[in-house]
Amino acid sequence: MAPNEGRVEVVVPLAERPVEDPLPGNHFVLESPDQSVVGEPQVVFTRETDTLSDLARAYGLGYDELVAANPDVNPWLPGANTPVLLPTQFVIPDVPREGIVLNIASKRLFYFPPVAEGRPVLVKTFPIGIGRVGWETPLGATSVVAKARDPHWYVPLSVRQEHAELGDPLPSVVPPGPDNPLGHRVLKLDMPGYLIHGTNQPYGVGMRVSHGCVRLYPENIEYLYELVEIGEGVTIINEPFLFGQRDGVLHFEGHAPLEDDTVDPQDRLDLLLEHWNGQLPRGFSDREIARVKAAAGAAAGVPLRIEARRADDPLARARVVHNVVEVDTEAPTLAEVREMIDEAVREAEEDAAAVPPTAQSVQ
Q: Which domain holds residue 9?
């Protein structure tokens, strides 16, 4: 019998659940070497002025992952008292747990700080903005070769040419300050021209908006900057489909493959299913394979329990938490933020339209 096969779950309506404090969203202790799922799904009820962009930053999420988890919610006008699923549960990529791991498909950074032998493994995870189509964030193994506070931005010629063509010329060097897109902290990679950095446009975190660099919320890069040492390894992967285990329960997390992904998503998923089918004592049932494929096609980015009697519903097991969005009087207005994000999405769609369609979403 699969885990939970004979268990009958009693689902308490969201409105009847206690409202609790949010769980720490970025820092986790792995209780065992086999654990590869961390966090728990949460639900927050919106206030009239909340947007998904506001909620994303308040709960340590990226804009795209919050939109994907709530496809039926208007990201700009959710309305008062609308339940929003916070995808604050994550499957850790199946790579060595060392240094920084960037999964560009999920737009997430995972950092494994050094720990003493015999101590539990720690993981810290943050949303990231990545390179848009035509300016892809490169894959592979690299390392941090330098760090800088309040950096100057030496604008690449290709970026200056692009801006000039758009009638928005840039200088060759942008000094530190509010107009510097690198923000206040930079980790330089051993890949010429590529950085992990902050941003002066936090709305773009969790989206494909950069020229290939990886950007984090200002508070996240400042925290990470103090932990990461020069020489630490960085692994950049593109894995939209992830299996993980926690307490013997298998989870699957599916994201939309990137528009310019050169690997066919069906082939990618089939190979992953074949691998995990060999890892399980009894293999997958037809029903479980169907659930995995459905989750891959939905691309909600929320880990689902595959080995269960019924299809998993994260809302049914999510904790309801307090709304902690704070009003920032100096922040851009809703109209300004919406215009900026709409522009970023439009640019990404235009770039994607110029790339031959090499992959379609898994059905």
A: 1-94+239-363
Cα–Cα distances (Å) from 186 to 8, 76, 134, 190, 200, in that order, read 50, 31, 23, 13, 13
Compare 168 and 121 and report the one with higher pLDDT.
121
Active site residue 152: no
197 is catalytic: yes
**266: in domain:** yes
pLDDT of 148-205, one tens digit each? 999 887 776 766 776 666 666 666 677 888 888 899 999 999 998 899 999 988 988 9
Question: Is there a domain that residue 220 lies in?
Answer: yes
- DSSP 8-state secondary structure symbol assigned to residue 205: T
**Contact 212/225 with Cβ under 8 angstroms?**
no
Q: What is the pTM of this model?
A: 0.86
Residue 51, CB half-sphere, CA atoms under 13 Å: how many? 17
Domains contained in the chain, number? 2
Contact between 50 and 144 under an 8 Å Cβ cutoff? The reply is: no
Structure tokens at 71: 């496809």
Identify the pLDDT of residue 338: 63
Identify the burial level of 286 via C-beta atoms within 10 angstroms of its C-beta, where 0-12 means exposed, 13-18 middle and 19 or more buried. exposed
Q: Which of 197, 211, 251, 255 is catalytic?
A: 197
The catalytically annotated residue of 211, 213, 251, 255 is: 213
Same domain, 184 and 267: no
Q: What is the pLDDT of residues 351-363, one digit of tens each?
A: 444 433 332 223 2
Query: Do 214 and 163 fall within a single domain?
Result: yes
Interatomic CA distance for residues 34 and 38, integer angstroms: 12
Strand-pairing partners, residue 140, are 236
